[in-house]
UniProtKB/TrEMBL annotation:
Pfam families per the UniProt record, alphabetical: HTH_IclR, IclR_C
Segments forming domain HTH iclR-type: 6-69
UniProt keyword annotation of Signal present: no
Gene3D superfamilies cross-referenced by the UniProt entry: 3.30.450.40, Winged helix-like DNA-binding domain superfamily/Winged helix DNA-binding domain
Domain of life from the UniProt record: Bacteria
Keywords, ordered alphabetically: DNA-binding, Transcription, Transcription regulation
UniProt domain IclR-ED: residue ranges: 70-253
InterPro entries per record: GAF-like_dom_sf, HTH_MetabolicPath_Reg, Tscrpt_reg_IclR_C, Tscrpt_reg_IclR_N, WH-like_DNA-bd_sf, WH_DNA-bd_sf
Protein name: IclR family transcriptional regulator
The keyword Magnesium is annotated on this UniProt entry: no
Signal peptide: none
Amino acid sequence: MTSPPVHVTGRIAAVLRALSGVEGRGAATSALARATGLARPTVHRLLAALAAEGYVDRDQRDGLWYLGPELYLLGEVAARRYDVTQHARASVHRLAAATGESAFFSARRGEETVCLLREDGAFPIRSFVLYEGARFPLGVVSAGIVVLAMLPDREVDDYLGRTDLTVHWGQSHSAEALRERIARTRETGYSVNPGLVVEGSWGMAATVFSRAGEPAWALTLTGVESRFRDERRPELGALLLKEAHALTNLLRA
């Protein structure tokens, strides 16, 4: 578990990230305090200041906080430079159509992955661990595993040396367990999440690299355990790697 940020900018960023991860449901001040590790009065003061500028909004009926209209306007401008989902959408569609599973595109943001796109395949049973806007620390869910695995050893060592994922995600996310997962991912090129977040909900992911060769995004397939048997995983992995390679080349062009 990482320590809460000490400077104001970091605290504001932590609050906004936590608020963005509630999938449009809104969040109470106390819930945001728990998610950020900040004191409740501190979070309330930050939210009040952000609300005055239009960056967050509060529903007066239930007191829940939501992202505000000013963020939408800023996002529209930023998307002109940073939005890669227009390129990734075709890859996500092909993966969902070819496998019948739910396909996703996630971006690395600092020490997290953020789900940007989702498309469900034809198979009727779905996993809802991932959804658009969902954030997870590196090393958690298949996207976070594969991005972490593709970082240089020194960055992996630094991250695991100061981050305790077991507090929120259990012993299956200990540094030792993650190192084993990283080693397997590097061997195959794709990661496997064998129901570590929600029992019976499996995922696999492959990395999409930036022009600088950094693991910046991930393509993911998720579904129920019976759809990710030993005999099928190599096929799914090959499809993920094919689409990830093609998307990497497209984004580098």
